[in-house]
Amino acid sequence: xxxxxxxxxxxxxxxxxxxxxxxxxxxxxxxxxxxxxxxxxxxxxxxxxxxxxxxxxxxxxxxxxxxxxxxxxxxxxxxxxxxxxxxxxxxxxxxxxxxxxxxxxxxxxxxxxxxxxxxxxxxxxxxxxxxxxxxxxxxxxxxxxxxxxxxxxxxxxxxxxxxxxxxxxxxxxxxxxxxxxxxxxxxxxxxxxxxxxxxxxxxxxxxxxxxxxxxxxxxxxxxxxxxxxxxxxxxxxxxxxxxxxxxxxxxxxxxxxxxxxxxxxxxxxxxxxxxxxxxxxxxxxxxxxxxxxxxxxxxxxxxxxxxxxxxxxxxxxxxxxxxxxxxxxxxxxxxxxxxxxxxxxxxxxxxxxxxxxxxxxxxxxxxxxxxxxxxxxxxxxxxxxxxxxxxxxxxxxxxxxxxxxxxxxxxxxxxxxxxxxxxxxxxxxxxxxxxxxxxxxxxxxxxxxxxxxxxxxxxxxxxx
Length: 464
Known about the structure:
- The chain is α/β, with parallel strands linked by helices.
- Helix content is 32%, strand content 15%.
- The strands form five sheets. Strands 9, 12, 13, 14, 15, 16 and 17 form a seven-stranded mixed sheet that branches. A five-stranded mixed sheet has the order 1-5-4-6-7, sandwiched between helices. It has a two-stranded antiparallel ribbon with strand order 2-3.
- Strand 10 (209-210), helix 8 and strand 11 form a beta-alpha-beta unit.
- The radius of gyration is 22 Å and the shape is globular.
């Protein structure tokens, strides 16, 4: 399960301990939050703040009163094998609640957040608790969301997740993400941009195989994206046990004999993966390493600072780099708000921030009529979203990923933008949006591209 969590979430990074039990009410409005918000409340990057005073009234839905809106959020920070897992997500939502409440809430209603800790194995327990009290879930991310999705759909708990993992949640009903990750479309910018950076490697790459079912499925999808980008991949026949190998030397030697000059990994920056790349280095080959945004994190930096083994590492991103805060106001705003409350800052935190802002934007439009039906209607109308500049533009209303991306590279313990050449800019191309093969979806979709597995007659659907 640890491997599943670290592979499924988009960024792991170095986590720290955080106390508290599942379901801790957070009223918001801390002194630190008030001070941080006071200086610049009306904008979040390029986005006009959706928060503010108003005269919205009515107990319109569970968790909504004349004065309050109750939302749930959370992560897996209590997982014993990876303490603090993804706590940056809750830290971000807590800071955003304070920022919004300091401006008057949403149309005058203050936001009351409940911070849930799913601790990996308790996602369904958390969902059952949220179903009894929350208006919606916002900015959360549970690595084992497949265990909770049926419960969420059954109680009509609309959601704006920070991330999803399971196919049913990724294309779930009543669910919208600031950065969509559906099963039937993928952002392939990493492969297209690598093709521009290193056209000489289009016949020299191979994928690092794994025994983990989720990675096997992922690699099937990755292979189709690489081929769409013009790559003709090698097939060196290497499959690694996700629980680790006694020695990675034989696998490294096999890649050497195969003549690879580039390796794609769908695994995450964890000790077993570092040991594998140590063996690659010891075998005397120096391939370009390509991976997802999970490789933009503290653990890879820390490992590489003393070894240099990952100096050829590249990671595809649809988010701005944290290092670009001086050039991207939205990134600076995120860092300022979370840091003011002593929270952890990382890529997944920005992802939760984008989803919170998406939720708040729709909630403002609902005014006094703040119901789940209104939220689903309003969220379904939003087709151009970048979180105020935190990431490339997506289409949350249609659950479509970005058509843009950038590439980062690691040298020592420093990340820099490798592509495009202008720091803080994305390159966009319609070709980056790749329709995936149905065999990789892992679930059945209806004509509206919504997963059908848990649908019932009372599911809330967008109304014209």
